[in-house]
Design a protein that fits this description.
Elements lengths: L1 E3 L9 E8 L17 E8 L7 E10 L2 E7 L1 E5 L5 E9 L3 E8 L4 H5 L29 E3 L11 E5 L12 E7 L8 E2 L8 E7 L7 E10 L2 E7 L1 E5 L5 E9 L3 E7 L5 H5 L1 H6 L1 E2 L1
Length: 281
C-alpha cells in the first residue's frame, strides 16, 4: 500500500509504502545488497493490539556487511549511501507489517531505480567498516502518554527519535499506537499545527483485509470536513493546521502511525509537557 508519493501529493519528496506479511517471503531472502541516495527508514510492526511489541517473527538484515537482528516491533534507520541487504527471515510466527519510508525521494523509481537491487547477487556481503551499524536500530523503546487520546495502547511506542538513534542528520519522529475503542471525553485530537511536515497514517488491523480500517474517522483540514473508514493517510505540510480529528465509531483495533519529518525531538514538536511524559523502558 503506497501511502504517500509525488503522484498522490504533487511535489512531495517522501515515498512511503507498507504491507502485511503472511509468511516467509519466497525466495528467502527476497532482496540482496543495494544502496540508496536517500535516507531510509524500515519499519516492522506486529499485528497483535494486545501485545504491540510482539513482531511475530525474526529477520536478519545486513547493514554494510554487519548482521542486525529484527525480532520485535521497531524501526531501522539506513543512512544514504550505506549498503544494506540481504534481508530475510529466520522464523515466522504471526502476520506483521513491513513498511519503508524514503526521505527525499518522491517515487518508487527515484528511490530504487539506481539502487542496484535488481542486480543478481547471492553472496553475503563482508563488513568493510569497523563502525557498529546496530546503533541505527533503537535498542529501547521510548514510551509516552497519548497526546490527549485515551483508549489507545498506553503508553504509545515511539519507534524513532533523535534521542534513540545518534546519527548526524535530522531524522523523523515516529510514533505508533493501537486504537481499541472510541477515545474517551470529547473523542478528538484538538486543533494544532507543527513547524514540521507530518504524515498521519491509519492502518486497518485486519491483515487479510488491509484496506478496511475497522473505524470511521472524521477530521477537519483547512475548514473542510473529511470522513474515512478505509486505511488511509493525511499529509500535513508544516504550518498547516489540523482543525480536529475524532473517531465516530470503532469496530476493531487499528493502528495509528505518526511520522513527523525533519525533526526527531519530541520537545521541539510537542513542547515541554510531552518531553516530561516520556520515559525509557
Amino acid at each position: 500500500m503506497t501511502m504517500i508519493n509525488d503522484a498522490l501529493v504533487p511535489g512531495v519528496k517522501y515515498y512511503f509504502e507498507g504491507g502485511w506479511i503472511h509468511g516467509i517471503l519466497v525466495p528467502n531472502p527476497p532482496i540482496y545488497e543495494h544502496v540508496h541516495r536517500f535516507n531510509e527508514i524500515v519499519m516492522m510492526i506486529g499485528s497483535d493490539p494486545e501485545n504491540p511489541e510482539y513482531l511475530g517473527g525474526e529477520l536478519f538484515y545486513y547493514v554494510n556487511g554487519q548482521e542486525v537482528i529484527l525480532n520485535k516491533t521497531g524501526a531501522m534507520f539506513i543512512p544514504a549511501g550505506v549498503k544494506h541487504g540481504p534481508m530475510g527471515y529466520n522464523k515466522f510466527e504471526k502476520d506483521h507489517m513491513m513498511a519503508g519510508v524514503m526521505l527525499g525521494a518522491g517515487s518508487l523509481s527515484e528511490g530504487w531505480g539506481d539502487s542496484g537491487v535488481a542486480e543478481p547477487k547471492k553472496e553475503i556481503p563482508k563488513n568493510d567498516s569497523r563502525k557498529d551499524f546496530t546503533v541505527y536500530k533503537p535498542k529501547q523503546y521510548v514510551r509516552e502518554v497519548g497526546h490527549g487520546v485515551k483508549n489507545c495502547t498506553s503508553p504509545c511506542l515511539t519507534l524513532m527519535s533523535d534521542g534513540q538513534v545518534p546519527v548526524p542528520a535530522a531524522i523523523p519522529y515516529v510514533n505508533l499506537c493501537w486504537i481499541h475503542d472510541v477515545p474517551d471525553g470529547e473523542a478528538k485530537v484538538r486543533e494544532h499545527q507543527h513547524k514540521y511536515n507530518e504524515l498521519l497514517v491509519h492502518f486497518g488491523g485486519d491483515t487479510k483485509n488491509p484496506f478496511e480500517l475497522g473505524a470511521e474517522i472524521e477530521f477537519g483540514l483547512c475548514g473542510k470536513k473529511h470522513v474515512t473508514n478505509k486505511t488511509s493517510a493525511v499529509y500535513l505540510p508544516q504550518e498547516v493546521k489540523l482543525d480536529y480529528l475524532k473517531w465516530n465509531k470503532v469496530t476493531r483495533p487499528h493502528l495509528e502511525l505518526s511520522i513527523i519529518f525533519d525533526c526527531g525531538d519530541a520537545k521541539k514538536i510537542y513542547g515541554e509537557i510531552a518531553a516530561k511524559n516520556q520515559a525509557a523502558e
